[in-house]
Design brief:
The protein is mostly beta strands and 78 residues long. It has one helix at residues 7-13; strands spanning 36-42, 52-57, 62-67. The longest helix is centred in the first third of the chain and has 7 residues, at 7-13.
């Protein structure tokens, strides 16, 4: 069954040693883009009524906070 990965799972595939985007092993993940990807990890402590979650940017491999108004990519795992 496919699902959204947690923030930690996304960070494990990020390549923090590269200085050129995308910050991911393009051999293992061909066609990967330097984009921000949604995770299934909710962002606690956010007071707006919109759904908020952590995402991981594969352009400096950084965690970012996303809300439902964000149009970002997903990378599913199983």
């Amino acid at each position: 069954m496919w699902r959204l990965p947690t923030e930690k799972e996304l960070l494990t595939i990020a390549d923090v040693t590269t200085s050129t985007p995308p910050a991911i092993d393009c051999t293992a993940f061909p066609g990967a883009r330097a984009d921000v990807f949604w995770s299934a990890t909710p962002f606690a402590g956010f007071t707006r009524s919109a759904a908020v979650a952590w995402g991981v940017g594969f352009d400096s491999a950084n965690p970012v906070v996303l809300d439902v108004s964000s149009s970002n990519s997903v990378r599913c795992v199983r």
